[in-house]
Amino acid sequence: MAYVSHGHSDHCLPHGHVLATPATAEFYRLRTRRQGVTELPFHRPHWVKDRCLELFPAGHVLGASQVLVTGPDGRRLVYTGDFKLRPAPCLDATEVRPCDVLVMECTFGHPRYRFPSIAEVETQLKAFVARSFELDVIPVVCGYVLGKGQEALCLLTRAGFQVAVHESIYRVAKLYEKQGVDLGRYELLNLASVPALEGKVVLCPPHVKKQVTAPLGRCRTVMLSGWAIDPRSKYRYGVDEMIGLSDHADFTELLEYVERAQPRVVYTTHGDGAFAEHLRKSGMEAQHLE
């Protein structure tokens, strides 16, 4: 049996049988066409031989979980998967569990990565839309199909904007609603009727940005990404603006997680090992897993 932490494609590899939260199971079946899934809700103990597994919220995308594994001797291992501590407008709050061994994802493990709060992101996003309307152009917001697409949708609708959503984000939004998440009122993007988009925000994933913007004519684009911290990121993504909305933990959150979990040893994944090196310099046992 394999554990699947969340529904992004790089984590949904086909296995013989998997353990996942009900929401992650939906995405896993959709991506892999595999049906061998044991659905385990948050906070319900599950025994595998002499070890107890418990899944708890990671705050990454809908259904994203961390796993606590307690051995027969009482030692506790936590694997975070992809996570963040900042509250998201449409997700369960992240939890931190005390543990002896911590395996944590550290994509943004350098001190330069410190993301704005969700309130700051909301302010920046509303300002981008307002500027676009003042210039009489269509605002196009780019966010990944699962996760940031729905966070952006929630922020935009609760700010009172009319939003036309690309079908890929639209399909996932319906899965969010199936799990009881309210994303507000929105419509399916119809590029065959561009005049009907006047006064509306277009929401699409970055990989279809060119196909979406070509028929729109006058528009401005913004990308939602943690990489917005890098000065030249807007040129890399080919957009007019960047906003630092990330579904990963930044450097400050990584430090906070370790401080709250109080592990004896930390293993880091993703990134280049800088965070593990930082922990070692502070006197903690830490190692980066390539």
Question: Would you write up a description of this structure?
Answer:
The protein has two domains: 2-112 and 248-288, Ribonuclease Z/Hydroxyacylglutathione hydrolase-like (Metallo-beta-lactamase, Chain A), CATH 3.60.15.10; 118-243, Rossmann fold. It contains eight helices and 16 strands. Helix content is 29%, strand content 22%. The protein is globular, with a radius of gyration of 20 Å. It has a seven-stranded mixed β-sheet with strand order 4-5-6-7-8-15-16, with helices on one face. A six-stranded parallel β-sheet has the order 11-10-12-9-13-14, with helices on both faces. It is α/β, with parallel strands linked by helices and 290 residues long.
Known CATH architecture of the largest domain:
4-Layer Sandwich
Overall pLDDT confidence: 95
**Helicity, in percent?**
25-40%
Based on secondary structure, the structural category is: alpha/beta
CATH overall fold name of the largest domain: Metallo-beta-lactamase, Chain A
CATH class of the largest domain: Alpha Beta
Low-confidence stretches: none
Give the radius of gyration. Answer: 20 Å
Strands of the largest sheet, in order across it?
4-5-6-7-8-15-16
How many distinct domains? Answer: 2
